């Protein structure tokens, strides 16, 4: 790492603190699709903030060697040109060693002249579905509390049996 | 501060899993029957607190509260956190099953440290008079600092031991990024300890030797 001039260090610290959002978010999730000549997608943390400026790569199915590498944009989106073929996997790696990968679903080539518009629409729908799937739902949290109560109940039952 | 799957090297994962299993076994022996409801309550608090992200300023922060649970439970935090982390991995894919051992150590060891460092501060005196309020606040705040600081240090250590080439520069940032968590956790823990002393002194008197 190059040394920052000392005057810049407080600024860098402040910037790092402001950018700390991503580091506190827990999981990293990625949705990707293989369009005509590129793999496009969106990387997000589980609190739904976009994973901006993190490493992304496209790999063939049975290999770890990336065909294309890049970083996500400020909105967490990426577009990496790939040769025809596939299936391809999209891999993203973020802070704290967060990593996520997904199969880049092959989008069918649209009939007519508006293939790009169709691909865009499909992309948005897939992103919405992924968002719904990743959402931490209140009922999951409540379910988790239920598990904890149940496990404590089982432990209490064992303790009572041991005593009895 | 949950480490994700596929980051740590196999020896680190295996070692952490073995240590964590030993911790859970030891913790279960130390978990008395009378402690059980409190353990479940603190386990649920830990589970919920680290699940819900609260927007603070430009970022979002969540509580961890591992220090507070450690102060109250001692070694029993191992089985308690094990359950909570298992649920988080199963329900929300936070962390993962292979890194469960490492994540458990990261959360639970600082909690046990908080217990041994701070228990003297919160126990009532021999004649039953509660400790002064200021000392309780200090103990609560120290819970947050020991708990989060220790967890960040252990997470960094696990990354260093795995020799991740990407991580050396990240580690400083990891600690820096958790400064807001530090502050919030310390404040909440301090408020909780002070409140317990006023409303339910028996809970603090029960902090085990």
TrEMBL record, chain A:
<keyword id="KW-1133">Transmembrane helix</keyword>
<protein>
    <submittedName>
        <fullName>Nickel transport protein</fullName>
    </submittedName>
</protein>
<keyword id="KW-0812">Transmembrane</keyword>
<dbReference type="InterPro" id="IPR013784">
    <property type="entry name" value="Carb-bd-like_fold"/>
</dbReference>
<keyword id="KW-0472">Membrane</keyword>
<dbReference type="GO" id="GO:0030246">
    <property type="term" value="F:carbohydrate binding"/>
</dbReference>
<keyword id="KW-0732">Signal</keyword>
<feature type="transmembrane region" description="Helical">
    <location>
        <begin position="141"/>
        <end position="160"/>
    </location>
</feature>
<feature type="signal peptide">
    <location>
        <begin position="1"/>
        <end position="25"/>
    </location>
</feature>
From TrEMBL, chain B:
<dbReference type="GO" id="GO:0005886">
    <property type="term" value="C:plasma membrane"/>
</dbReference>
<feature type="transmembrane region" description="Helical">
    <location>
        <begin position="6"/>
        <end position="26"/>
    </location>
</feature>
<dbReference type="GO" id="GO:0000041">
    <property type="term" value="P:transition metal ion transport"/>
</dbReference>
<dbReference type="InterPro" id="IPR002751">
    <property type="entry name" value="CbiM/NikMN"/>
</dbReference>
<keyword id="KW-0813">Transport</keyword>
<keyword id="KW-0472">Membrane</keyword>
<dbReference type="Pfam" id="PF01891">
    <property type="entry name" value="CbiM"/>
</dbReference>
<protein>
    <submittedName>
        <fullName>Cobalt/nickel transport system permease protein</fullName>
    </submittedName>
</protein>
<feature type="transmembrane region" description="Helical">
    <location>
        <begin position="64"/>
        <end position="87"/>
    </location>
</feature>
<feature type="transmembrane region" description="Helical">
    <location>
        <begin position="173"/>
        <end position="197"/>
    </location>
</feature>
<feature type="transmembrane region" description="Helical">
    <location>
        <begin position="38"/>
        <end position="58"/>
    </location>
</feature>
<feature type="transmembrane region" description="Helical">
    <location>
        <begin position="94"/>
        <end position="118"/>
    </location>
</feature>
<keyword id="KW-1003">Cell membrane</keyword>
<keyword id="KW-0812">Transmembrane</keyword>
<feature type="transmembrane region" description="Helical">
    <location>
        <begin position="138"/>
        <end position="161"/>
    </location>
</feature>
<keyword id="KW-1133">Transmembrane helix</keyword>
């Amino acid at each position: 790492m190059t040394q920052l001039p000392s005057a810049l260090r407080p600024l860098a610290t402040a910037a790092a603190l402001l950018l700390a959002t991503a580091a506190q978010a827990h999981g990293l999730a990625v949705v990707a699709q293989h369009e005509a000549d590129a793999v496009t997608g969106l990387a997000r943390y589980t609190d739904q903030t976009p994973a901006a400026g993190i490493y992304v790569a496209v790999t063939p199915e049975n290999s770890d060697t990336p065909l294309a590498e890049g970083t996500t944009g400020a909105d967490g989106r990426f577009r990496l040109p790939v040769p025809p073929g596939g299936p391809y996997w999209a891999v993203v790696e973020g802070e704290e060693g967060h990593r996520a990968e997904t199969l880049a679903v092959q989008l069918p080539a649209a009939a007519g002249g508006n293939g790009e518009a169709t691909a865009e629409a499909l992309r948005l729908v897939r992103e919405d579905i992924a968002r719904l799937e990743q959402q931490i739902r209140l009922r999951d949290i409540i379910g988790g509390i239920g598990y904890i109560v149940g496990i404590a109940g089982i432990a209490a039952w064992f303790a009572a049996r041991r005593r009895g | 501060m949950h480490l994700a799957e596929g980051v740590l090297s196999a020896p680190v994962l295996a070692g952490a899993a073995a240590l964590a299993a030993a911790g859970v076994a030891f913790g279960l022996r130390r978990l008395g029957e009378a402690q059980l409801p409190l353990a479940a309550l603190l386990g649920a608090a830990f589970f919920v607190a680290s699940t819900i992200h609260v927007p603070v300023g430009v970022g979002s922060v969540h509580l961890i509260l591992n220090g507070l649970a450690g102060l109250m439970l001692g070694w029993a935090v191992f089985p308690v956190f094990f359950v909570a982390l298992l649920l988080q991995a199963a329900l929300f894919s936070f962390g993962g099953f292979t890194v469960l051992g490492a994540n458990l150590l990261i959360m639970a060891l600082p909690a046990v440290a908080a217990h041994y460092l701070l228990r003297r501060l919160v126990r009532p005196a021999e004649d039953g008079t509660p400790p002064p309020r200021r000392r309780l606040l200090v103990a609560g705040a120290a819970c947050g600092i020991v708990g989060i600081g220790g967890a960040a240090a252990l997470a960094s250590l696990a990354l260093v031991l795995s020799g991740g080439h990407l991580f050396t520069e990240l580690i400083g940032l990891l600690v820096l990024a958790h400064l807001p968590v530090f502050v919030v956790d310390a404040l909440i823990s301090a408020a909780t300890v002070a409140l317990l002393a006023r409303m339910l002194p028996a809970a603090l008197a029960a902090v085990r030797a």
